[in-house]
Amino acid sequence: MNLTKKRIVVLFHSGNCVTGVTKYSVDHLARYWREDGHEVVYLFGTKTYVPADIVLLHVDLSVVPDQYLAFASRYPIVLNGQIRDIRKSVVSTQLVDPHQSWIGPVIVKSNFNYGGAPEQSLTPGWLTKHSSAWRTACQVMDRLTGREAITDWTEYRVYDSVKEVPSSFFKRSDVVVERFLPERENGLYHLRMFQVLGDRWTCMRIASPHPVFKASMSVSSEEIEPHSEVYTWRKQFNLDYGKLDYLVHEGRPVLIDVNKTTGASSQVAGAPLQAMRRRIAEGLYSYFT
User: Fold this and answer.
1) What percent of the residues of the chain are helix, what percent strand, and what percent coil, each to the nearest 5?
2) pTM score, whole prediction
């Protein structure tokens, strides 16, 4: 696409660093923007303003601090400037409480994106919290107090009914209880991932024998057409860039997760992965036409 040279700013949290952003998909997209002759500037925090044609707000927290939203608003074009809160308690329509008459399995998961891991690493005291001694102490305290830890997505739990869920979970703000509505086919669980930037998107369907899994654990993947409801969700959450995880349960689409700081893809590799990234990267240019 013939486009005059643009300066593109990607705004990260101050707790991120240059060497750490390679885990994000946006770092790979930036390579294509540079190949196309554009300048890409990474900003970490809000202390320094660099004029640019567009900014992508890329703060890897479930709730974006107001200072980042205000800082990003200074740019002429802001991507993801209107999506502040992606906690499950905000985006989920499958929440249940102990008094509901839902009959069926439920899942207990973190209220925060990726099990709250970004909050642990980007908030003050994260070095201490990442030490093995701190984790061991927390586990001991959890056992003594009867509090069950859900500090990682691998600790999400499926119960046969609401009645089996420990009552303490319903009193906590860091976890949610949802109806468990899996998409199963041929003995496998499936998840659909819609990734988007501007007018470009990809949609993959992955499968695993495990009810809770990430792309890296999938045993198969295929490109699919997104369900029409996906576009409604995208508009609802003002998602300029990111990913919507969903499934189709008994013919009905069910939103699982909203992600505005997508991790680097792992479900495909080689030339197909590069083609997918190139396609998504070019979606940025739709904001200049």
Assistant:
1) 35, 25, 40
2) 0.88
* pLDDT tens-digit series, residues 150-201: 655 567 899 999 999 999 999 999 999 999 999 999 999 999 999 999 999 9
pLDDT per residue over 31-54, tens digit each? Answer: 999 999 999 999 999 999 999 999
Spans of all domains in the chain: 7-79, 95-179, 184-288
Domain 184-288: give its CATH superfamily.
ATP-grasp fold, B domain (3.30.470.20)
Give yes or no for a contact between 93 and 70, defined as CB atoms under 8 angstroms apart. no
Q: What are phi and psi of 23, to 5 degrees?
A: -75, -10
Helix 270-281 and helix 25-35, axial crossing angle in degrees, nearest 10 = 70
Judge whether 33 and 40 are in contact, CB under 8 Å: yes
Q: How many CB atoms sit inside 10 A of residue 27's CB?
A: 17
CA dist., res. 51 & res. 41, Å (int)? 10
Contact present, 178 and 256 (Cβ < 8 Å): no
Helix (H, G, I), strand (E, B) or coil at 274: helix
